[in-house]
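Sample A.
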Amino acid sequence: MQKILLDYKIYYILVLILFIAVMLSCTSGQNVSSLSNLDKDDVILVGKVILDPPLHPNEYTKIISIKGSTGYVYLYYSTKVKPIESLDIGLSQISNSIKTENAKTFYVKFKNQPLYFYYGFVLMDIDTDSGNDSYAYLPAGWVVNPQSNDKAVYIGTIKYYRDEFFRITKVDIIDEYDNVSKEFYEKYGNTIPLKKSLLKSM
């Protein structure tokens, strides 16, 4: 019996490592290092997510520390309006999320079409004993609708205020276009304009 339990735990840990690897790699929004990576119908979404206060290492309880598995915020989206039947998080939600570091500007490319942001989440705990993973959920409910000729769109800074129990007490969409546009043009040059189109409620 001891050997069976040990083999099961080793198997679960291997599956867990694979799951984390998927979390790191399968988000569909791709960071754009160069404008040469853009196809004709691509658009760059530019924005930022801030957790206030930021996460402290002691908030990760029994988590396995694999580089990139902690501290990221995921923004789950869809290209269609649809009812949310549950807040389960699996490969479908992860692969349809923007993954970003707290308080760091992201530059991700998508096909030029409306995106509906339903909720966000942060991986908080991976328990190898029970097999249960814990997430902190972040409210959303926004849409961005790029125009056909847009190549880069600034959607704003999403700032989540939280208490010590990770209850979200307030959410702001902040316009930091002036500062972010400077970063954008330093990064990509003046080849394409950065249009401001802040997130709107659905």
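Sample B.
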Amino acid sequence: MTTTLTTGPAGPAGPTGPNPQPDDLGAVRLTAVFPAPARFDVHTVETLEAWIADQRAAGARRLLVDCGDVRFLDVAVAEAIDTACAAAARADELEVINLSVAAAITFELLAAASLRSTKVAA
């Protein structure tokens, strides 16, 4: 599993990691993207949690979980994301983006039942 690192509008990612550049306000905005696998299940929770911890330790300001390729998402992953969102220092620190139909349906059903903190991009 690879991690793609990008920065705000002022600077592209370097070949081996981020190359943060200040935005117009002088703040460095570092975003890390986790490309979720097609089968995003209990067997990938440990990888996701380790990635989140590593990115937070590296100073990433915004973490995005890209679910564009997800064809199956189970409750263990949704709960791990929800727990990480609840523990986030800022409301926009962790976000689920680019939802496939399968991921969108799963998050919608689980959100109605139990998820409290997960921010899902429309």
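B remarks: The first helix runs from residue 45 to 57. The longest strand covers residues 30-35.
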